[in-house]
Specification:
It contains 22 helices and 39 strands. It has a 15-stranded mixed beta sheet with strand order 19-18-17-20-21-23-16-24-38-37-36-25-26-27-39, sandwiched between helices. The protein has a 7-stranded antiparallel beta sheet with strand order 1-2-7-5-4-3-6, covered by helices on one side. The chain is globular and about 95 Å long. The N and C termini lie far apart (about 65 Å).
Length: about 1000
């Protein structure tokens, strides 16, 4: 059976003309797009048939035109469908009236079936990449794809040939110019280089519909002297060079859509190859802020790289440790900068069923486990194997604790400092999962404070080293041959904050009396040298065992993150970033290897890459604290991120751990939504933020985004949650199997009481419990009178406040109904998947992967590094990292099998609606307002456990001053964010 059929029978008997701006009406898949189509006409009515087997829908536009949408069913032509450029097409057959149309919406019919007869029909096609191509081009590309996929093109090729012959030949054959999304250009200037005939300048206008032929004709008619030619192909001309005008030579990236040829600056077009998309890279990649007069500076961007996204810890660790295996030689080495805690003796690779990712494996234990593939299991073993082979390794470890005057440190300050550097995450990395809960988390932290008093003096004397999270990373790795591992303290002080805080006011007179350093090197990147090759790694994944969770998310603490492997000259800038830091903190020792030279011949791929960083700027007059490689700080990372947001035309997808960005970022994102400059904004964040007091700030921004959306359906914000499972059964098989200890009325709402028994089977708070099918959220123990021995009373939420499913205008919970004492009650695990990623995708053409969170620290204060990428062929790239990553991430968030990803997720806007699916039909993604309240790190009317904890330490002033603590300690900014 042929894959596609001509939309009209006997295509040679029809006349064809292109038509511009055919707007698809509401109610159809690609509503709102103004499409370039082809109008087929004939004197006598002829059959119009379905171009493919598909699902039909009929909608009339405001002028009464009848649009018949044919959504192609891929299964009968699956081999061909997989090679269609730009994804599966959707066809539109547009008639002047509805005569002869007898199908009902949702009907499916076979390709080649006659729909009706007509003397005129307009034929449109939209691909999943939503590029608005010329009919002659998409018809030809579909014909080629059918042949490539081993299909039968005999019923489609005559139509493609007829359209090309009628609309794309001769002196006036269109020359079509597009932006990065495939939308015809309505403005801009280009130079037309005609060789001996000279160079002509042309400025496009909206009425040209992106056709340079029309531009030339229009300009010639207006001023023949300035534009001496009337057509581009007149006089037998067979080619010309298109040179878009840019601010700086070399900033333009072009792709010829007919054959995928790419070029920088200029591109040759011919009558057969005459469609070009391009973008000005200077509009995306900001100029590097740091320009050292006597040093090696980072490039604005490098062409010719290969960027491979790596989703979740196992993907990164498996890839990274293979490179470390290959680096076992005298010319091999590793540079690794840890942006958080590193566990050198934890097993990170070759995991099998039954492995404990938290097991400590020193060399004497792990050496016998080395397999024939020689791939190390731990970082310690990897460094040893490299050193034994004659190579070398260097590690820069984040320094969390810096006391100005150790004699003044108190137990309270010790614990407060630990909280500020997110002691909660550290505890969780060590397996204390309860710290993500409510009062239990507060209790754990309070216990930590009490325990700290036992060795406070020792901590003070050693300036915090006994509880320094990376002490083991320094001590263990430094003992290995050819390996150096050192602390890298961040020199920023609170005096560098903007505005600078008063050291005699809260919190520096009450909590942080001896602590002046609250910044960190948060960069998470590595360079591996394998012979003459260098591989870079950059992203958000730390070398922690709790990152060992894949897309199935079956770990006790589900974790999601993103990293990238980089090959090409862009690795130079990563290596330079490490080298600059090593010069400062390496103790005068040589690095493991030199920064690789930039090699113009080095082009392992087609990705354009910028490496961008954040560094703080010291206060005016405090230049002695400046970083020699960024004396005035660096905000290139933010500048590029903001530029990419401003360039967005269709969609933005963001994953972030905190999502409490500075005003400049908020304004850019809200502006895109308010002005309807994008069609879709999807944001994935954790349900519970572990940024101290961050929930209040985050919720304010979320509210602003939904206000800007105003019901337009652009904004989706949510968190991932894995499928329902039983609670942790490590103690007994009956854990979580309970009974109601008292009657439960039908009423719902907050502050409801539930009695459960027996006490030994009750899991740790908070938990969900199913009572005869009703899901209830139990969040705190109650002091209510116990009516039966062995029973405990708890505060719970029922009905809509449980908000487990988002649907309609607001989330809804389980329907509350009455239950009698003795009814079965089973604890249910609805564990969230913790989102640690710092990632953004724009229009399936730009991707950001790095360490910078969307907050002041990430963009204007801490040490951060991101990799920004655009494929050289833009959306048409066969190996587009933005598209590859989006499909993989969305499959994970939507819990879809990998083999379904291409047909379901190829179209980002249509696929975005899948995020609205209920969790009860398999969706992991859950709307952010579908979550129970009372979060650990929130502060609302004394509800937050951390607020109670601080007050227990005597900081009652916190209740009114927590915004000050957030701005000055938790999320400060420096002068870097104030630079013009």
């Amino acid at each position: 059976m042929p894959a596609l059929f001509s939309p009209v029978t006997d295509p040679a008997s029809w006349n064809y003309a292109t038509v511009d701006g055919v707007t698809i009406p509401d109610g159809l898949r690609y509503a709102g797009y103004a499409v370039r189509g082809v109008r087929a006409t004939r004197t006598a009515a002829g059959p119009v048939q379905l171009p493919a087997t598909g699902v039909l829908r009929e909608v009339a536009d405001s002028a009464g035109k009848i649009f018949v949408e044919v959504q192609v069913i891929p299964f009968p032509i699956r081999h061909v469908a997989n090679v269609f450029p730009g994804g599966l097409p959707t066809f539109y057959l547009v008639f002047d009236d509805a005569t002869g149309l007898t199908f009902a919406d949702g009907d499916a019919d076979l390709g080649g079936t006659t729909l009706r007869t007509a003397t005129a029909v307009t034929i449109l096609a939209m691909r999943q990449d939503r590029m608005l191509l010329d009919p002659a081009l998409w018809a030809a590309q579909l014909a080629s794809a059918i042949t490539l996929g081993g299909g039968d093109a005999s019923q489609w090729q005559p139509f493609a040939d007829a359209v090309a012959a009628a609309t794309a030949t001769g002196d006036t054959a269109p020359v079509l110019l597009y932006d990065h999304t495939g939308t015809p250009l309505a403005s801009g200037s280009v130079d037309i280089v005609l060789g001996a005939e000279g160079t002509l300048s042309a400025s496009l206008a909206p009425e040209d519909a992106g056709d340079l032929q029309r531009t030339v004709a229009r300009l010639h008619a207006a001023n023949p002297a300035a534009m001496p030619i009337s057509t581009l192909w007149g006089g037998g001309r067979t080619s010309f060079v298109l040179r878009p005008v840019a601010d700086a030579i070399g900033d333009i990236q072009l792709v010829r859509l007919d054959d995928g040829a790419v070029a920088a600056t200029e591109l040759t077009l011919t009558p057969a190859l005459r469609s070009a998309a391009f973008t000005n890279l200077a509009d995306w990649f900001a100029e590097q802020r740091v320009q050292l007069s006597d040093g090696d500076n980072l490039a604005r961007f490098f062409r010719g790289n290969r960027v491979t996204p790596l989703v979740n810890g196992p993907a990164l660790f498996d890839d990274f440790f293979v490179r470390l295996r290959d680096a076992q030689g005298p010319d091999g080495g590793m540079h690794l900068a840890t942006g958080w805690q590193m566990f050198p003796q934890s097993k990170l690779t070759k995991r099998v069923l039954g492995d404990d990712p938290l097991a400590i494996l020193p060399l004497n234990v792990v050496t016998p486990l080395l397999g024939p593939d020689n791939i190390a299991l731990t970082l310690e073993q990897a460094a040893k194997l490299i050193g034994d082979a004659g190579g070398a390794s260097r590690f820069l470890n984040c320094k969390f604790i810096q006391f100005e005057d150790p004699r003044a440190v108190t137990v309270a300050e010790l614990v407060a400092v630990s909280l500020v550097v997110e002691f909660i995450i550290i505890l969780n990395a060590l397996g204390v999962s309860a710290v993500r809960t409510d009062w239990v988390g507060g209790f754990v932290l309070f216990a930590a404070a009490v325990g700290a008093s036992i060795y406070t003096q020792k901590v003070i004397d050693a300036n915090g080293d006994p509880i320094e999270p990376n002490k083991q990373a320094v001590d263990v790795m430094s003992a290995i041959t050819q390996t150096l591992s050192t602390f890298a303290p961040y020199p920023a002080r609170v005096e560098d904050n903007v505005p600078p805080p008063s050291l005699s006011d809260f919190p520096f007179d009450a909590i942080f009396t001896a602590t002046r350093h609250v910044g960190l090197y948060h960069q998470k990147f590595a360079i591996v040298k394998v012979g003459a090759e260098h591989f870079g790694y950059c992203g958000g994944i730390d070398f922690n065992p709790n990152r060992l969770d894949d897309a199935n998310h079956l770990a006790r603490g589900p974790y999601h993150d993103v990293h990238a492997r980089i090959e090409g000259n862009a690795v130079h800038d990563l290596a330079l970033t490490f080298d600059q830091r090593w010069q400062r903190d390496g103790g005068g020792e040589a690095p493991a290897f030199e920064v690789p030279a930039i090699d113009d011949a080095l082009a392992p791929g087609g990705d354009i890459v910028q490496i961008a960083r954040t560094y703080y700027a010291p206060a005016i007059g405090a230049e002695d604290r400046a970083l020699h490689f960024a004396p005035n700080g660096d905000r290139t990372l933010f500048d590029t991120m903001r530029s990419a947001i401003l360039q967005a035309r269709e969609f933005i997808y963001i994953e972030d751990q905190y999502f409490t960005p500075p005003p400049e970022y908020r304004e850019a994102l809200i502006g895109k939504v308010t002005r309807r400059e994008i069609r879709q904004l999807i944001i994935t964040i954790p349900r519970i933020t572990d940024q101290l007091f961050g929930d209040t700030v985050r919720q304010a921004f979320i509210s602003d985004l939904f206000t800007a959306d105003a019901g337009a359906g652009i904004v989706r914000i949510g968190y991932p949650r894995r499928r329902f499972t039983s609670t942790d059964n490590e103690i007994r098989a009956s854990s979580g199997k309970m009974l109601l200890g008292g009657d439960l009325a039908a009423g719902g709402g907050e502050l409801s009481l539930i009695f459960l028994t027996p006490a030994a089977r009750i899991p740790a708070l908070p938990f969900w419990v199913a009572v005869e099918g009703e899901l209830i959220y139990v969040y705190d123990e109650s002091s209510a009178t116990i009516v039966q021995e062995g029973t405990k009373a708890f505060l719970c939420e029922r009905g809509d406040p449980t908000a487990i499913v988002a649907g309609g205008s607001s989330p809804s919970g389980a329907f509350p109904r009455a239950h009698k004492q003795g009814a079965p009650a089973t604890a249910v695990d609805l564990t969230d998947i913790y989102v640690h990623a710092k990632m953004m995708i724009v229009d399936d053409v730009f991707v950001s992967i790095g360490s910078a969170n969307l907050n002041n620290r990430g963009l204007f204060y801490d040490g951060e590094v991101n990799c920004f990428t655009i494929p050289d062929a833009l959306r048409t790239s066969s190996r587009n990292p933005a598209l590859m990553l989006r499909r993989q991430l969305w499959a994970e968030m939507l819990d879809l099998p990998a083999e379904m990803v291409a047909p379901l997720l190829g179209d980002p806007l249509a696929a975005g609606r899948l995020f609205d699916r209920s969790p009860f039909v398999g969706n992991r993604y859950t709307r952010i307002d579908a979550r129970p309240p009372r979060l650990l790190l929130g502060y609302t009317s004394g509800d937050g456990a951390i607020a109670d904890f601080f007050q227990a330490l005597g900081f009652t002033i916190l209740a009114v001053n927590y915004p000050t603590l957030f701005a000055e300690i938790v999320d400060p900014r420096s002068r870097t964010g104030s630079q013009p």
